Amino acid sequence: MGQSSVIVVLGASGNLAAKKLHRRGSLDEKLKIIGFDPTHMEHDDFINHINSCVDASTPELADKFKVFRERCSYITINQDAGDDSFIELRKRMESFIESDEAQNRYFYMALPPNIYVAVSEQLRRNCYSEKGDSQIIIEKPFGRDLESSVELHRKLEPNWKENEIFRIDHYLGKEMVKNVMTLRFGNPIFGALWDCNHIDNVQISMTEAIGTEGRGGYFDDVGIIRDVMQNHLMQLMALTTMERPGSFSAEDLRHEKARVLRLIPPLDTKHTMIGQFVKSADGKYPGYKDDDSVPRDSRCATFCTSVAYVKNARWEGVPFILKSGKALNESKTEIRLQLKDTTDAMLRDTAHNQLIIRIQPDEALRLKMNAKMPGLELRTVGTELDLTYERTVPDPDIPEAYECLLLDAFKGDYSDSVSEQELEASWKIFTPLLHHLEGNKDIKPVDYAYGSEGPDGLEDFVSSYQYQAEPSR
């Protein structure tokens, strides 16, 4: 950063990532951090709050966090005093510099989305840096559908330019997601087969073994499609399908992602299955509607799988099976590319080759292949090349997603910030499906038991799009 900089955390949770950056030594010595929240806290209370979240188990870490605490201060927002608290915030930031010194200001808005616009207006009016960079950092959801997303951007636009808005999709900060481009464009062996001539189908999935766990009231207004598919899965699909950018600059990268997203037609209910979890088979775990905050007649989908296509020469006819759900049998996020069959006349009973990019947990890259079974007969056996980080990289230092993204924001690197063009293209894919599902009361999600693999009929649904399940071992 070089010159004086301030991070203002609006909300209670965003300071955790900043602490991790400090632990790595990634923050500039001149950087200050201000907590800004309606919760009343004195300075010592705020420092105690930070201490409760800190791992200072070694003398080295203890020394680092002692320095970190000296960077921090806190202002309680008086919500009934108009701009007064924001004026106090400006004066606090100005106290860190000389009158003619430039200062960069980063406003991390760990706030409910319904107050983004009002707060951003007060920040622009009272706290904008006239002699440095200013930036608001916001997280999903960016609207509920295409119309509301466009409206949110329209309301932010008068005060904040596109290059002053950093939109966080935390999946873009995950190590294996960042590895997708290196895998594709740094290895000719994969680049040569990355098209419809070799790839039969692609499955992009994010599943969770936990339910809504007390968040049912919030989740019921969002659903799995808005919560996961429209953002996280679409970003994974864009990175998987985009053409090679002219460079890895933010402008070129985001342009290619937006371009390929525009080639995906809106999802069709005929190619979609939705579900809602009920209590587990043993009765140990409750169903979605057992949560008191969820309406008894809720039609909210806690599971969805839908099939998308990219209308270009590279991906013509290849189904992209998008799947996400809560309260399933395992927590896992991966991209699985299944290649076309071998010619039956040559080798029979061979499995598809598969390239599996495991994003979490246990970051890994696996290539499943066929080999000859040892012996006199020509028989095949499945085998795999396995690059699991924990096995191949001694003590891998894998940063958390928010560490990467916040550091990018502070550096002014927008490569992993979701652009307004990407958002618009993504919402165009999902908005018709959402409106159809929510506008037709006769459409109800299929029940599935907590801890199961999903609704009955899921395997048949997925296999109808060429996906070949792995044989059980």
Notes on the structure:
- The structure is a single chain.
- The chain is α/β, with parallel strands linked by helices and 473 residues long.
- The protein is built from 15 helices and 15 strands.
- It has helices at residues 15-24, 43-52, 59-71, 84-94, 116-127, 146-156, 175-185, 188-191, 216-220, 223-241, 250-261, 389-392, 401-411, 420-439, 458-463, and strands at residues 4-10, 31-37, 72-76, 103-109, 134-139, 165-168, 199-207, 272-278, 303-308, 320-325, 332-339, 354-360, 364-372, 380-388, 446-449.
- The strands form 2 sheets. A 9-stranded mixed sheet has the order 14-13-12-11-7-10-9-8-15. Strands 3-2-1-4-5-6 form a 6-stranded parallel sheet, with helices on both faces.
- Helix 1 packs across helix 13 and helix 4 (84-94) crosses helix 5 (116-127).
- The longest helix has 20 residues, at 420-439.
What are the SSEs and their pairings?
Blueprint: E1 4-10, H1 15-24, E2 31-37, H2 43-52, H3 59-71, E3 72-76, H4 84-94, E4 103-109, H5 116-127, E5 134-139, H6 146-156, E6 165-168, H7 175-185, H8 188-191, E7 199-207, H9 216-220, H10 223-241, H11 250-261, E8 272-278, E9 303-308, E10 320-325, E11 332-339, E12 354-360, E13 364-372, E14 380-388, H12 389-392, H13 401-411, H14 420-439, E15 446-449, H15 458-463
Parallel strand pairs: 1-2, 1-4, 2-3, 4-5, 5-6, 7-10, 8-15
Antiparallel strand pairs: 7-11, 8-9, 9-10, 11-12, 12-13, 13-14
Helix pairs in contact: 1-13, 4-5, 6-14, 10-11, 10-14, 11-14
